[in-house]
Amino acid sequence: MYSIRRKLSIIILVCSILAALLTAIFVNITISNKFSEYMVNTQNKRNDRIVQYFQEVYKRDKKWTATSGSEMKHEAYMSNYCITLLDSNKKLVWMMDPNDIKEKEHFKSLDGKNGVFTTNSFQIKYNGDVVGYVQIGQYSSILLSADDVNFKLSINKGIIASIFLSLLIVIIISLYISKQFSVPIRDVSNVSVKLSNGDYNSRTNIDTDILEIEKLKISINTLGEKLNHQDLLRKRLVSDISHEIRTPLNILQNNLEAMIDGIFPVNTEQLIGLNDEVIRFGKLLNNLNTLKEFEAETISINKEKILLDELLSAVCDDFSIALKEKNIELIYNIRPDKDYSIIGDVDKLKQVFINLLSNSVKFSNYGGKVWINLTRDKENIIVSIRDTGIGISKEDLPFIFERLYRGDRSRNKIEGSGIGLTIVKDILTLHSASITVESEVGKGSTFTIRFMN
Ligand code: ADP
C-alpha cells in the first residue's frame, strides 16, 4: 500500500521523466537533422568554391601544371580532405595522399562512419568546355571541425542539464501538489477512523481548495453530527422508555401496595385510576409497536382513491369534543371547486391528520385557534395545519420527527410519547409526500404537507 502523497509523487515523476525524455529525443533528432543539413550546405558551398578556384587558375594559366592550384593543398590538409586534379582527359595532374589526413584527430565525421574514403568529382569548365576535373575526397560524407563537435556536445549537455533542472522543479512541485491532496485526505480519513471508533465529536476543519475533498470534508462532518445526534437519541430513547414504563408501573405498584396495606380503599374510583395507568402503558406499547412495524418496513398500504377534503372534514368532526373541552376554535379553509383526490391508504392518512390535529390541540392553550387549509397548485395538493399553541424551540425543531423525541417544553408537562410525528413522517414517505414545519415559541406552529400530483 502506498500513501496518496507517495503514489501521486511517483505518478507525476514518472510522467515528467517520460515527457522530458521524449522532448530530449525529439529536440536532439531535430537539431541533428538541421545541423546535418547545415553542414551539407556548407560542404556544397566549399566544393563550389574549390571548383571556382580551379576555374580561375585555368583562366589565368590556360593550362594545367604540377603546381596548378597547389595553394589549395594547405587548406585541404587543414580541413581534412584531399584534392586530386585531373586534366580534360582525366589524366592525373597532381594529387594529395589520403593517408596524410587519415590519422588526424581533430576532425570527426557527423555520421560516425570514419575510415571509408570517398571522392566526388567535379568538372572544371572554361568558356563552356570541360578543361579538367577536381576530385575531392574525404574519410566521411560530412566533415566536422572540433568547433562543430563542441557545438553539438554543448547542445546535448544543455538538453541534459535542462532535463535535470526540470526534473528537480517537477519533484518540488509534485511534493507540493501531492501534499495538497494528502494532508486533507489524511485528516478526513483520521476523522472517519475516529468516528468508526465511536468518537462522534471528532470533526475536520482542514482548509482545501479541492472541490471533491471539500465535499468529503462536509459530508464526514455531517456524518459525525448525525452519528452524534443518533447516539444522543439512542441514549435518550433508553432513558425515555424506562421513564415512560417506570412511571405507570410505580403508580400501579404504590397504589396496589397501599390497597393491600389497607391505606387506600379498594373501590371503583381507585380501580379506574389504576386502569387509566394500564391504558396509558398499553398506548405506549402500541405506539412502539406501530413504530417498530414502520422501521422494519413490514407495513403495507392499501392504495385507493381518497378525497382529501372529505377525509379532513371527517377528522375535524372527530375532534369536536376535544376542541370544545379546551374551547379551541377550528377554522377549516378549502379552496372550492378543485380536485383534491389522491391515491393512498385512507386509514394511514387519517392517522396522519389525527396525530397532527391532536398535537395542535394538545399543545394549544385554552381558547386557542387551529387552522386547517387545503389548496392545490400545479404540482401539489397542500394541507397545512396551523395552531396558536406553545410553539417549538429552534433547538427542538430539527429533531421533532425523530422517534421518541419530545420537545423540552412538552417533556415533563404534557403527556406524550414522541412517536406521533415519526409515524406521520413514515406514512407520508410511503405516500411520496413531504412534511415541513415552521414554528415560533409562544406564537404557534404550522405543519405543511405536500402531496405530489
Ligand atoms: P408527542 O406529542 O407524543 O410528544 P410527537 O412526535 O407527536 O410526540 O411530537 C414530538 C414533539 O414535537 C412534541 O413533544 C412537541 O415538543 C413537538 N410538537 C409537535 N407538534 C407540536 C405543536 N403543534 N405545537 C408545539 N409543539 C409540537
UniProtKB/TrEMBL annotation:
<dbReference type="InterPro" id="IPR003660">
    <property type="entry name" value="HAMP_dom"/>
</dbReference>
<dbReference type="GO" id="GO:0000155">
    <property type="term" value="F:phosphorelay sensor kinase activity"/>
</dbReference>
<dbReference type="InterPro" id="IPR005467">
    <property type="entry name" value="His_kinase_dom"/>
</dbReference>
<keyword id="KW-0808">Transferase</keyword>
<feature type="domain" description="Histidine kinase">
    <location>
        <begin position="240"/>
        <end position="453"/>
    </location>
</feature>
<keyword id="KW-1133">Transmembrane helix</keyword>
<dbReference type="InterPro" id="IPR004358">
    <property type="entry name" value="Sig_transdc_His_kin-like_C"/>
</dbReference>
<dbReference type="Pfam" id="PF00512">
    <property type="entry name" value="HisKA"/>
</dbReference>
<dbReference type="InterPro" id="IPR050351">
    <property type="entry name" value="BphY/WalK/GraS-like"/>
</dbReference>
<keyword id="KW-0902">Two-component regulatory system</keyword>
<dbReference type="InterPro" id="IPR003594">
    <property type="entry name" value="HATPase_dom"/>
</dbReference>
<dbReference type="Pfam" id="PF02518">
    <property type="entry name" value="HATPase_c"/>
</dbReference>
<keyword id="KW-0472">Membrane</keyword>
<protein>
    <recommendedName>
        <fullName>histidine kinase</fullName>
        <ecNumber>2.7.13.3</ecNumber>
    </recommendedName>
</protein>
<keyword id="KW-0418">Kinase</keyword>
<dbReference type="GO" id="GO:0004721">
    <property type="term" value="F:phosphoprotein phosphatase activity"/>
</dbReference>
<keyword id="KW-0597">Phosphoprotein</keyword>
<dbReference type="GO" id="GO:0016036">
    <property type="term" value="P:cellular response to phosphate starvation"/>
</dbReference>
<feature type="transmembrane region" description="Helical">
    <location>
        <begin position="159"/>
        <end position="177"/>
    </location>
</feature>
<dbReference type="InterPro" id="IPR003661">
    <property type="entry name" value="HisK_dim/P_dom"/>
</dbReference>
<keyword id="KW-0812">Transmembrane</keyword>
<dbReference type="GO" id="GO:0005886">
    <property type="term" value="C:plasma membrane"/>
</dbReference>
<dbReference type="InterPro" id="IPR036097">
    <property type="entry name" value="HisK_dim/P_sf"/>
</dbReference>
<dbReference type="InterPro" id="IPR036890">
    <property type="entry name" value="HATPase_C_sf"/>
</dbReference>
<feature type="domain" description="HAMP">
    <location>
        <begin position="179"/>
        <end position="232"/>
    </location>
</feature>
